Amino acid sequence: MKRLGAQKIFCLFYIGNVFEQCASQIKILLLNHFVKAKDWTLSPSPIKAQGSKE
């Protein structure tokens, strides 16, 4: 019984670790997506301003 309990705990830790890694990957992807979206909305005005100055 103790062995099974240890295996269950190990499995839970393993699954939790994998899930955490997946979650962090998803977070990074989402952050990159939002940053890109912000860049698209924010960049044009500074680029236009720089272009007009030059």
Please explain how this structure is put together.
- The protein has 54 residues and is mainly alpha-helical.
- The chain has 2 helices and no strands.
- It has helices at 2-42, 44-53.
- The longest helix is centred in the middle third of the chain and has 41 residues, at 2-42.
- The model has no long low-confidence stretch (mean pLDDT 78).
Offer a few descriptive terms.
single chain, mainly alpha, rod-shaped, 54 residues, 2 helices
Distance between the termini: 76 Å
Radius of gyration: 23 Å
Q: Give the overall pLDDT as a whole number.
A: 78
**Percentage of residues assigned to helices:** over 70%
Question: Which class of secondary structure composition applies to the elements?
Answer: mainly alpha
Helix and strand sequence: HH
Count of beta strands: 0
Stretches where pLDDT is under 50 for at least 5 consecutive residues are none
In terms of DSSP E residues, the strand content is: under 5%
Q: Specify the biggest β-sheet.
A: none
Task: Describe the structure concisely for a colleague.
Helices cover 94% and strands 0% of the residues. With 54 residues, it is mostly helical.
Write the SSE topology.
Elements: H1 2-42, H2 44-53
